[in-house]
Amino acid sequence: MNPVALGQSDLRVSPICLGTMTFGEQVVEAEAHRIMDRAVERGVDFFDTAEMYAVPAREATFGATEAIIGRWLKARPGMREKLTIASKVAGPSRGMPWIREGSGMTAADIQRSCDASLKRLQTEVIDLYQIHWPERHVPAFGAMYYDPKKETSATPIHEQLEALAALVKQGKIRHIGLSNESPYGVHEFVRLAEQHGLPRVATTQNPYCLVNRSYENALDETCHRLNVSLLAYSPLAFGLLTGKFDEFAPTDAAAPKQARIAKYESVQKQRWGRPDALAAARRYNALARENGMTPVQMALAFCYTKWQVASTIIGVTSVAQLDEDLNAWGTQLSPELLAQIDKIRWESRDPAV
């Protein structure tokens, strides 16, 4: 895997990124360490985490993932210098009062969150520090429409950028990114950064997979023209595109019990648990098999080969899953197959948006 550049930054990373949000919930620490060891062995040098993790988010596991990564790094002298580590500051509380008091995300909140992440990660600097979701009201995590009546923004984007600039100046972060953003948000962050000499966002981390290609509805043009790289998350749609739910709905008694979408009610209620998302995933999975591939191979190859994607974030619960995902690298999808994929999208749209 050749390294890819992230935006206008000096970051060069593997085109596959190890997502870690299962560490500390579905994945015990010893297995998480094995997964990280194996990822590095196979050429992955880009890890993504967040202060909010593990997921599903709850008070008992808040910060657990970063702490697991920190202990792994401490036990492996010299490893930190080989890796690009990304983390995130949580946006305004979405029913998670343990993250911070109040519903906002002030400059002081950003500073405190970064300091706490550095301590848990046992590192002096975070290479890419991202805003997990916008401070302003934006439809995300299954919401469909923007509603100005729901606006509660209290910290302007300019002020957020100044807080991040202070962290760069302190040497605590190297570059900044966004997550779950809209075309307006990306453009405004870039505009204000260039106008005021503040850090320019290098990336946006948004969902991108066969059942959610909403990124291609204008955000891809925005990011292309502004040179902001996409970190694609949930390429397997929380397991829908693995085929494990082709025979059973996530809520069926016979469905795989350890899958996140089956195990946690909060996930089922969001975009990935929708019946139309499952129905569309089954069509894509059948198409993969008809073309001599596993559903995982086709779904990941779709992300791995799209011009819109800089690095694809894969989340796994075992070394075996990691190897399966990495083995899909190099799989090519023919123009005829891509046309069939687009036909399904035309008929089912983006059911997991």
The parts where pLDDT drops under 50 for at least 5 residues are none
Helices and strands, in N-to-C order?
EEEHEHEHEHEHEHEHHHHEHH
Instruction: Give the overall silhouette.
Output: globular
What's the total number of strands? 10
Biggest beta sheet attributes:
8 strands, parallel, barrel
Strand order of the largest sheet: 3-4-5-6-7-8-9-10
Overall radius of gyration:
19 Å
CATH superfamily: NADP-dependent oxidoreductase domain
CATH C-level category: Alpha Beta
Arithmetic mean pLDDT: 94
Protein name: Aldo/keto reductase
InterPro entries: AKR_Detox_Biosynth (IPR050523), NAD(P)_OxRdtase_dom_sf (IPR036812), NADP_OxRdtase_dom (IPR023210)
Domain NADP-dependent oxidoreductase: 15-344
GO molecular function, one term: oxidoreductase activity
